[in-house]
Write a structure and sequence with these properties.
Rossmann fold, Luciferase, domain 3, GMP Synthetase, Chain A, domain 3, 3 domains, six-stranded antiparallel sheet, four-stranded mixed sheet, 17 helices
Amino acid sequence: MTHWQASLVDILRWRGKEQPHQLAYRYLNDGEYDEVVMTYKDLDRRARAIAALLQSSAKEGDRALLIFPPGLDFIAAFFGCLYAKIFAIPAYPPHPARPERNLPVILRIANDAKPAVALLTLPLLDVIKSRKAISDEFGDIKLLATDNKEIDEWADEWKQSEIAGNDIAFLQYTSGSTTIPKGVIISHSNLVHNLGFIENSFGLTTKSHTVFWLPPYHDMGLIGILQALYTGYPATLIPHLMFLQRPIRWLQAISRFHATCSGGPNFAYDLCTRKIKPEQRQQIDLSSWEVAFNGSEPIYHKSLEQFADYFSPCDFSRDAFLPCYGLAESTLMVVGAPKSRSPLTRNLSNSGLEHNQVINSYEKAGDTRTLVSCGQNPPDHKIRIVNAETLAPCAVDEVGEIWVSGPSVANGYWNKPRETECTFGAMLCNSKEGPFLRTGDLGFLYEGELYITGRLKNLIISEGKNHYPHDIERTVEDAHPAIRPAGCAVFSISKSGIEQIIIIVERDQKHIVKDDEVVIAIRRAVSINHELFVNDIRLINAGGIPKTTSGKTRHFLCKEYYLAGTFNEIKSI
């Protein structure tokens, strides 16, 4: 319906005039019934007002840090930046009571992007101004509160500028799961193309309804918010902390508002399966849920199976699962499985994968690993599986790095020409086909379906065999009840030229057992399942492993903490 529009500014302006009273966003402050709503007319007026404020404080092409808690203020500020042709930078907000905790992350982004302004709420502005040490860290960055009611009067002062498809829309800083975060340059054409692609893949229409808990400074959360406006259906949003505290709030919202589309990474489905009690399922009706997307890398088949089995009494359909794959460097989604198709899986030989070979196995036990397809190569994108060392295409039965090209692929990293050339300018060595985006992810294409096996930078190579950290981490989690779910990190370090395997484990103190028992169980499980010797195991308290906002383990930070000896309350074995 809106594909003819050049940008989200055009789309919101049109909806504000033609559908002024239609619900755009509903935000559940407590995750349940304390709701605030925003229509297209409301959002358009707020965006124009914030844009006018920005035009009085900055110039086109300047950057603006968005340091809001999740909510409607963030959405209005983001669109205000689009309206003013100021490049928005969504960032994880500091906690008002402990602003110093997240400040280093914000300042690293600010140092890289050099923003002229920072948009925030009045309470956070008051906190920053009341602490001189923190206020001084922002230097010359202008701090502008957007929840001041007087700002609404600025709406008529907004001066509209022409927006071209190749103009920059915003900077999406990467999650930092494997490297230091970098600012991905997303153009308006990148954004509109990817939103159109998701709309078609998910079968979204104006009659759809989404429920989202992912935070807006995460790429999946942000694109989910923007998708609702692009297609023209209402979105119900939940603070991610409210979801983490009580996962049932997510499913209750789907049930209450008859949502048709929602999703998240593996851990969200696992959390619901673990934390929602059998008797609580009687409160939930999931029959409206048509698309339950999972964008983890890689997708864990047991998470899908266990969720589908556990919530079948709530009329959840296994066919609703829609595995997909994406990354910020391609705006978001690269491929998605067909709607209403049960997840397609393949059982492969583990020993084959250790040598980058795709060997089918017809049994689901022993030396096998089950992988879930993320979908087929879309028609207007190219996907190549490439040997990361030779830059030559892999054979059809080989695992290699996933390379992507197409309209959704971003224009590079902000202020990083060398990294941009290396990541976005890849060429095949034989045909010189390109340029391609090097995703850093490993996988293969089988009968046109893309399967993800792991991350290139996390790969552990021992005695000439490849081992994927997430496989070992699953083994560790199942090794002993005292190990917290999703509470371990596996990585390797080089010592005297020899690769050593390190395991960090979050210990559940509710289980009264000796630490030695836990360590022995881990060593035994890893030895039996992976034939690996673990050089060091560290037990730490719950919450000690650094994660991204979408729940991915930040392996490179774990390695840094380990080498620096800075893990909190760590016990060395």
